[in-house]
Structures are given as structure tokens and as C-alpha cells.
Amino acid sequence: MRKIIFCALVILLATALWAHDHAWAQWKPEFKFLKMASSRPGGKWFTLGAPVAKLWEKALPGVRVSVLPGGGISNPKTVDAAEAKAGWALTPDVYNAFHGNPPYKKKHPNLRHLGSLYPAYMEVVVPKKSDIQGFPDLYNKRISGGAIGFTTLEILKFILASYDINFEKIKASGGSIVYLNYSDMVLNMKDGHLDAAGFMGGIPFAPIIELNVQPGLRFLKIDKAHLDKIVAKNPGFITAEIPKGMYKGQNEAIPTVGANTVLLVHKDLSEEAVYRMTKAVYENLNVLREVTSTAKDIHLKTALKGMACPIHPGAKRFYDEKGIR
Q1: Strand 64-68 to strand 33-37: parallel, antiparallel, or no bridges (unpaired)?
Q2: Which of 123, 193, 205, 206 maximizes the CB count within 10 A of its CB?
Q3: Domains of the chain from N-terminus onward
Q4: Beta-ladder partners of 265
Q5: pLDDT tens for residues 35-90?
């Protein structure tokens, strides 16, 4: 009996190994190199890009994956032009790029959705002692939403537009738009040179924590009517909420807009390649979670949330197998 059981186990193991080798044998490298557009070195996307690249190299034997610097607004253009066949982006930018809405000057039809990852939240803050109570009060203030080319700047512009405020109106009313990176925004608000600042990222967000200590801050809420208006105009946005108690002294939830970080691919990548790339990411989320706590918010069940361009057939094949709709 033991010999029979042993033989059966050997046969099962041999069959499993054959099936595994046979599956990998179906992959014949269609390309030698795959470029992935991410963020500035040190940024969250650049940091996560490294383990994703390794997962993709394992899933695509014979392919070398490299992580390129990039940005939220530029990456959709880079992927559309096939300068990188994959890239990181935020869903509002993907929607605008695919449809040719500002700040993009033309449609970018080659973008395809591989998967939604983790959410990012727009947090617009003012000093705690400020007399600013809402977005309408920003019409003549000194504000910043990041440097030129920052996705945050475009999102802030979009939010203000829903309140019939634009940068030109702010300047004409005696206010100013200050183009700064996040660290300089923190310094300028501490020094009293900014009346309001907008940040886009996960929560809690380090610059917000720092400003909450000094000079102390308050969040500007976006009411439901304006949230609905924003999402209706750009479905890449999602209605979101900064939960009560996320920051010290924050005694109520803050309604705001959010977006999903997504992985994009070029439409010309084969179904088999993107199937393997998608499978590699969502079946190895533990690898990403070892790199950053932000990855704890990446889940297979939300991989299609906020999709802002057509899904790639290879990704769809994987999600169909998993029952994700």
C-alpha cells in the first residue's frame, strides 16, 4: 500500500511539474525590453516600480524590465507614444489623456487599463487660525497645488472650477498661484507665505502631519453637490473621505475627491504578456506590501475601480478567471 501511495504521489508531482513547464513553454518572448514610466526617483511609484519590475521579469522569461522616472501627467503621454509600454498614473489624468481634455492637447487612444492599485486623496489645508472657511474664500488668496506639471495642481484647478473660480480670477483679485514642490509648500505655509495648500497622496500624509504640528491646520471640505459635479465631469475621480481621527485634533470626517493609482499599458502589448503581468502583480501583493505600507490598500477586488480607459484584453482575461467584474 505504501508503494502504491508513493507511486501515486510521484505521478502527481511529475504531472504538476510538467503542467508548470508546459505553461511556461507557451511563452515566447515577443520583446526583449519593457520600460515602465514611474515617478521621480524616491517617489512612491518609483519605489514600487522596482518590485513590480522583478515580478514582471519572472512572469516574462527573457524580458528585461526597466523603471524610468516620470510623473502623473506625463506618463499617459509616454505610454501612448510607446516610449514606455507600461506606466503609473492617476485615474483623472488617464481620463483626460484618453479623451484629450486639458491639460492634454490631443486624445491618447493607445492607453489600456491593467489594474487599479491604491487610492490617493486630495487634501486642501489652511492654517488653523485662518478666516478661510471654504473654497469660495480662496478667490483672492495665496495658494499652491504643487509645481508646474504636478497632477495635484491640475486637480486643485479642477476643484476650483467647480466653484466658478480659476487661477486668472484669483490673480485679478489680488491673490497668487505659487508653484512649489511639496517640501517648499510646507516651508512657505509655516512661514506664513501661503494661505492654502493642496496635497494629493495616501493618508495620513507626511506633509499634512508636519503642518498639523506647526502652524496647525484645518481641512477644506467639498460638499456633496460639488463632489457630484466634479465626478460627473471627470469619472476618473472618486468621492472620498478622510476618516475622523486620521490626524491629531481632526474631530470630523472630511469629504473630498480621490483618485486611484493605476498601472497602464500600451494597447499593442499582447494578451498573453499583459495577462502574465496582471497575474504577477495581483498574486504577489505581499511583495509590494513589504516595500511600503501604502500597498496595504491594493486589493484584487478593487482592481477595476475607477477605470478611466478601456481594459486591456490580457488583464480582462485574468479578472474574468478570478470573477472580478
Answers
A1: parallel
A2: 123
A3: 31-119+260-322 (3.40.190.10), 121-259 (3.40.190.10)
A4: 86, 112
A5: 999 998 888 899 999 999 999 999 999 999 999 999 999 999 999 999 999 999 99
